[in-house]
Write a structure and sequence with these properties.
The protein has about 400 residues and is mainly alpha-helical. It has two domains: about 280 residues, Orthogonal Bundle (Fic-like fold); about 80 residues, Arc Repressor Mutant, subunit A. About 60% of the residues lie in helices and about 5% in strands. The chain has a two-stranded antiparallel sheet with strand order 1-2. Strands 3-4 form a two-stranded antiparallel ribbon. It starts with 9 loop residues before the first strand and ends with a helix.
Length: about 400
């Protein structure tokens, strides 16, 4: 893309006190084409995969937990993913009145609100009311020197730091914030963006809302939820809430993507869109892995029955593999002899029998080395037997 900015891609607005603000969908399509293609192919692949309802429910629970931990941790929440899981498992049982715990509970509710707001179909249009509702939910009952849930800030703030390219000063007064949000809503719901790829529209909403920075607290969490809201309106399943995981694990890249796009002389938002597309692809790969793993596990159950029926496995070997399938864990020789889960199978046999079983199952590819310790069920043994 040359250095002459296409004015159709850039909308410049003059604020009352804050000067010029730019809404941009100017990006290098050629540079991002490979990512567009990869995302499209992966999305089609994932859409063709079906899982049982109980697994879909578990997948949703896991993705929401991780998303809440990630989006909170980006803003400095100190709780671990395990602690977040404990809080979410007991929604009516607040252990403390600490801010960190309140943030997690608020985010759980905000994701529910996001899901409900997204039930609009392909014609979904973002409303400022929705942004206010999400912010109000995120920051409810959390003490702050200036923040009022759902209300625009009335004071100067500075965003960023020297480590990530310097400090940015968002629009300064409520009048400018209100005017820019109205312009933002009209722009993000414009025909060009509505007709484009949902990840691009969602990413641009995330980016520009971050630049306007309309609230005293919770702007990052709100912008990421608005991004998820736009994607959820397109029926993209669990993926919308998973993007925050990538942002958290690539936190420096996330901050730099904002800075490089914001400081571009041509208002080129390629750096931020590239980051979001990478997050989108990473989430699709993760979903694909989990869903195909579930399908393999389901097929493996039937496969083990057939191996027992044709006497490839004896009953004890079949039952061992069935236990590993049910408990999704690794096993060692010591576990076979001492772990209550396996003792019923091996308490009345010699240790060399346990070794013989393990050796046979490893040879068949039904057990494979585990990263942590011992051996795990070899789900890819299905490919080996099919090829044979």
């Amino acid at each position: 893309m040359d250095n002459i900015t296409d004015q159709k891609l850039v909308k410049k607005v003059m604020a009352f006190k804050s000067g010029q603000f730019v809404f941009s969908r100017n990006f290098d399509r050629v540079a991002l084409e490979r990512l567009f293609i990869e995302a499209r192919v992966l999305k089609e692949t994932v859409a063709d995969l079906s899982v049982l309802p109980w697994f879909a429910a578990k997948l949703e629970e896991d993705t929401i937990r991780r998303a809440i931990h990630s989006t909170a941790a980006i803003e400095g929440n100190p709780l671990s993913e395990e602690q977040v899981g404990e809080i979410l498992a007991n929604p009516k049982e607040a252990k403390t009145s600490a801010r960190a715990e309140k943030e997690i509970r608020n985010l759980r509710e905000a994701y529910r609100v996001c899901r409900d707001l997204a039930l609009r179909g392909d014609s979904f249009k973002l409303e400022e009311r929705m942004i206010r509702i999400l912010h109000q939910t995120i920051t409810k009952d959390i003490p702050h020197g200036h923040n009022l849930p759902g209300r625009h800030r009335g004071h100067l703030v500075k965003v960023g730091d020297k480590e990530h390219g310097g400090v940015y000063t968002p629009p300064k007064i409520p009048k400018d914030i209100q005017a820019l949000l109205a312009e933002f809503i009209a722009w993000i719901n414009g025909d060009d963006l509505m007709a484009g790829e949902p990840p691009i529209r969602a990413a641009l909403a995330h980016y520009h809302l971050g630049l306007i920075h309309p609230f005293s607290d919770g702007n990052g969490r709100t912008a990421r939820l608005v991004e998820a809201l736009i994607l959820q309106s397109q029926g993209i399943g669990h993926l919308p809430v998973m993007l925050s995981n990538y942002y958290y694990t690539h936190l420096d890249d996330y901050h730099w993507a904002f800075t490089r796009s914001q400081r571009s002389k041509d208002h080129d938002v390629t750096p931020f869109l590239e980051l979001v597309l990478k997050a989108f692809i990473a989430a699709l790969y993760e979903l694909k892995g989990k869903m195909t793993g579930h399908i393999r596990r389901f097929a493996m159950r039937d496969f083990l029955v057939k191996l027992r029926a044709n006497r490839t496995l004896n009953q004890r070997q079949h039952d061992l593999l069935a236990l590993l399938l049910a408990h999704d864990r690794s096993v060692s020789i010591k576990d076979l002899l001492t772990d209550p889960i396996f003792q019923a199978l091996y308490r009345s046999v010699w240790e060399r029998t346990a070794w013989r079983d393990m050796k046979k199952l490893i040879g068949l590819g039904l057990l494979t080395p585990a990263l942590e310790n011992g051996f795990r069920l070899g789900l890819r043994a299905l490919d080996h037997f099919r090829a044979a």
